[in-house]
Every structure is written in C-alpha cells, then in structure tokens.
Amino acid sequence: MNYDDVVTGRRSIRGYQDKPVPRALIEEVLALAMRSPSSMNTQPWNFTIVTGAVLDKIRAGNTERNLAGVPHSREFRIGTAFEGQHRDRQVGVAKQLFAAMGIAREDKDARQDWVLRGFRQFDAPICVIITYDRELADSDDTAFDCGAVTTALVNAAWSRGLGAVINSQGIMQSPVVREHAGIAEDQVIMKAVALGWPDDGFPANAVVSERKSVAEATNFVGFDSDG
Ligand SMILES: Cc1cc2nc3c(=O)[nH]c(=O)nc-3n(C[C@H](O)[C@H](O)[C@H](O)COP(=O)(O)O)c2cc1C
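Above are the sequence and the flavin mononucleotide SMILES. Below is the predicted complex in structure-token form.
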C-alpha cells in the first residue's frame, strides 16, 4: 500500500473480527509509529497493550461505572461542549454512523447500545493505551507528540490490514484502566486505540467521514497571486 492509499483509505473501525492479532505484528506497527517526530526528540509516549481477560475487566469496569453515573475521570482536559462548526462536525459524523447502522434518531435503546459499544472498546481484541511520562505533563508539546504517534499508529496498522479507532470512551474511567492494566503512577493516560482485524460486514466500518477543504483550513501568505 502506498502512502496515499493508507491515508485516504483509513477510517475508524468500530467492528472487529473475533481473531487474534499476532504480537509480532503489533510490535511492527508500533515500531513504524514510533518514527514520529517529537519535541526535541523527547518521545514522551509509552504504550500498554491489553488483551484477553484483562481487557474484558477494563470493558466491564468502564461500562459499569459509566452506567452507575460515576463522573468520568479522564486524565486530560476535555474543554466545554462543542458549538458552531465544531458541533456541526460532531453531529455530522454521528449522523453518518447512525445512518449506516440503521439507528433511528428516536431509538434511545439503539443509541445507548452504541454508546455502550464505545465503553467496551468496540469489542476489539486489542486495546493500546497511550500514556506519557508524567514529568512532561506541563508541556502542551507532550499532548501534541502523543497525537502524532497515535495517528501514525492507526495509519501503520491500516497499512498492514488492521483496523483501529482512537478513542476516549474506553478510558472514561481511567482508574479502572490503570488498575487492571497495571499502569504506573509516573504515566498519564492520554488515549486508547481499539485495534484488530476489521469486520467488513459491520456497516459503520464503511463510513467515510467528511473533511473541510484545504481552502477553508488554509491561509497562504506572501505567495504570488498565481501561486
Ligand atoms: C482524540 C480522539 C478521540 C476520539 N474518541 C472517539 C471515541 O471516544 N469514540 C469514537 O467512536 N470515536 C472516537 N474518535 C474517532 C473520531 O470520531 C474519528 O477519527 C473522526 O470522526 C474522523 O473519522 P475517521 O477516523 O473515520 O476518519 C476519536 C478520535 C480522536 C482523534
């Protein structure tokens, strides 16, 4: 697969085959991802790869606590609710996913099932917990660097036929993740990536989310008018 095929073909995968992913392949994907640039080459990222019974305990604990109304305890700032164009994009992709899954707007049970699926890491066979070194917590570069390596990870996975979805839903109850995955206190939990072989029959996996145009996102300065 060439670069364009990976970048334009990749999409978030929220339904997986019940098929194990070889550890060597995960290591290969991580090695590619870790070629990402980072501020001063600090490489603040670390990865805890969880599967099997441990991952099932995390899914269960995360789901139970969320259903019980325990306030989320994510270890990063989430800001206030989206408004305007950001809210429109959030709603836009949700509509695409619900349409693909045949979930009607008024079908509260089906919508709740979808949320619960997220709490379970989309039933993926593997979850990669992205953490960073706590001593670098004061720098925004650290979050920036974690984003870079995580994007590289999902692209590298795609290039090997694996699917993934970066997610915050699976780590809403971070103490549960920390306890079962044995994450040390010198690490801050940043994000999760559900990983596995895509189930091609799962409708949401076909959704291609929209992007604003280069023209909308870009301001060229100092160029001749003909570029
Ligand atoms: C930081 C971050 C957090 C995300 N959290 C979730 C999540 O909790 N649940 C989910 O279903 N998708 C989550 N996503 C996936 C986004 O919804 C998805 O990347 C976006 O809609 C674009 O779609 P695409 O990945 O298919 O191109 C997250 C993505 C990022 C980068």
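Residues 11-12, 14, 93, 118, 165-169, 191, 209 surround flavin mononucleotide (CB under 6 Å).
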